[in-house]
Write a structure and sequence with these properties.
Layout: E1 4-13, E2 23-31, E3 34-42, H1 46-65, H2 70-80, E4 92-100, E5 104-110, E6 116-119, E7 122-124, E8 129-133, E9 136-144, E10 150-154, H3 156-159, H4 173-181, H5 190-204, E11 213-222, E12 225-230, H6 239-248, E13 252-256, H7 258-268, E14 273-274, E15 287-288, E16 294-296, H8 299-313, H9 319-322, H10 328-339, E17 342-347, H11 364-380, E18 384-389
Parallel strand pairs: 12-13, 12-17, 13-16, 17-18
Antiparallel strand pairs: 1-11, 2-3, 3-4, 4-5, 5-9, 6-7, 6-10, 8-9, 10-11, 14-15
Helix pairs in contact: 1-2, 8-10, 8-11
């Protein structure tokens, strides 16, 4: 096992006027370091296309994840999905990417736009071979993964963006590569990169997509541990134990909460330096402790992070805020969403007297719920999460 991690994020927009998307993306984990990703594009749009693409992605991802060979999977899907007698094209096209032990990628492509690989900041052509399986011409690739590789799979709605509108012949693959090279070194998550590309496609369509459009991005990065301390322990005698475990862990350290930061500062023999500027009027200012990467207020800040996490898993519209702002919630979001791969939560169960005010919508149960919901969201982002209570 190497020290690489695959950050996977995807989004779709529907053909204008359609309630269902004719594209479907499935991500199935075979084990901790092996994943199967399938992007299927059903013929046409609407209900029929949605059913066909869903069937295709489900069949392929399930068979591959259960250990069947790629040839057997493709042969099954080729026999299952016929060719339209009128248009002479397949009822569903697909792109399959299988990440094996986070060491190499196997790619199978059938009539979808070719997968883009950005390596060392530039477009990199993936070597391919043609194979005929069940009468279908399949492009097959196998490539060793490198840190900072970015793979972009897409449906043909991307390359058709702007046809007859802002662009005469649509958005060429070379143009898409050039556009995405701009964001290679920024450090955006895979989901945010997919969102940026999809937003540009939607703009080229004039906000009225003429085709279902989907993007799935895979960003290969080195594993990055992160540690977050939230609240003092229920037993004061456990403070040193909690702090010792927290600070002994590899990776960056985030502390949330005024009382918690005071305990940490005392343990380190340092002082807490609080900023007075409200960058965001709704989020309390951050603080600083020598030896700690980030110090913020507790419940209010973490609640905003949870809001961003839920939005990230949905339409990811809030990335326009947290991706650059300097308030505590945005800073935590960038650390957890963009940098971290393995996150350790150290959660104190002490009751905060300030939260017992009946006029405040904060109580102990809400604090525990925040931790539970945030850790669940981060797991759905593909992070490895461990929560320890004190």
């Amino acid at each position: 096992m190497n020290n690489l991690f695959a950050d996977i994020g995807y989004r779709s927009i529907n053909h204008v006027g359609e309630e269902l998307c004719g594209d479907h993306i499935d991500v199935v984990e075979q084990d901790e370091n092996s994943t199967v990703i399938v992007l299927a594009d059903g013929l046409g749009s609407g209900v029929k296309a949605s059913i066909l693409s869903t069937l295709t992605s489900k069949i392929i991802s399930t068979m591959v994840s259960e250990g069947l060979s790629l040839d057997d999977c493709i042969a099954t899907i080729a026999a299952t999905l016929p060719v339209c007698s009128v248009r002479g094209v397949a009822y569903s096209t697909f792109t399959l990417i299988r990440l094996v032990n986070n060491e190499y990628a196997e790619i199978m492509e059938y009539d979808n736009p070719a997968v883009i690989l950005l390596r060392d900041g530039r477009g990199f052509e993936i070597p391919k071979t043609e194979v005929n399986i069940g009468g279908k011409l399949i492009y097959r690739s196998r490539i060793k993964l490198q840190e900072n590789d970015i793979f972009i799979a897409m449906s043909d709605g991307c390359v058709h963006a702007g046809v007859g509108m802002s662009l005469n012949f649509g958005w060429g693959r070379r143009d898409i590569i050039t556009f995405m090279e701009t964001f290679y070194d920024v450090g955006f998550t895979a989901k945010t990169l997919s969102t940026i590309l999809l937003d540009e496609c939607n703009r080229l369509y004039g906000g009225k997509p003429g085709d279902d459009t989907s993007v799935c991005t895979i960003r290969i990065k080195r594993r990055e541990p992160m540690n977050l301390l939230f609240g003092p322990p229920s037993n004061r005698d456990d403070c040193d134990k909690m702090m010792s475990l927290f600070f002994s862990k590899e990776g960056k350290h985030i502390i949330c909460g005024g009382t918690t930061s005071s305990i940490a500062a005392r343990y380190l023999g340092k002082t807490v330096r609080t900023e007075i500027d409200f960058i965001d009027p709704d989020i309390p200012p951050i603080a600083h402790i020598d030896g700690v990467d980030l110090v913020t207020e507790g419940v209010i800040t973490v609640n905003r992070v949870l809001e961003y996490a839920k939005d990230y898993l949905a339409d990811n519209e809030s990335y326009k805020h947290w991706s650059y702002k300097q308030d505590g919630a945005s800073l935590i979001s960038r650390l957890l969403f963009e940098e971290a791969t393995d996150i350790n939560f150290y959660v104190g169960r002490a009751m905060n007297p300030a939260h017992q005010n009946p006029n405040l919508p904060i109580n102990f149960n809400i604090k525990m719920q925040l931790v539970s919901e945030l850790s669940d969201c981060l797991r759905k982002m593909g992070k490895q999460i461990k929560v320890s209570y004190f």
